[in-house]
Specification:
With 77 residues, the chain is an alpha+beta fold. The chain has one domain. It has two helices and six strands; from the N terminus they run βααβββββ. The strands form two sheets. It has a four-stranded antiparallel sheet with strand order 1-2-3-6. A two-stranded antiparallel sheet has the order 4-5. Strand 4 and strand 5 form a beta hairpin. The radius of gyration is 14 Å and the shape is elongated.
Length: 77
């Protein structure tokens, strides 16, 4: 079975968000980051190169395929 392309990694969320070129979008992302930290009570983590995820859950399909995913998240794309 193929491995998922989007996996958690150790990239810094703050460093990633600092690379958002558009100033308004960058400020919006920092505000979303603050709000989601507060609401989820979870530490943000990078998933793949461009998704900020909060929380984690394990899923399993009837076929037996299983994996991990974030509970909620966002991307500045």
């Amino acid at each position: 079975m193929a491995e998922p392309k989007t996996k958690p990694n150790e990239q810094s969320v703050e460093d990633f968000l600092k690379t958002v070129a558009d100033e308004k979008k960058r400020q919006d992302c920092l505000e979303i980051l603050m709000l989601m930290k507060e609401v989820t009570n979870a530490k943000p983590k990078m998933w793949g190169p461009s998704i900020v995820g909060f929380g984690n859950y394990r899923y399993k399909y009837e076929s037996g395929r299983e994996g991990d995913w974030f509970l909620t998240g966002f991307s500045p794309r």
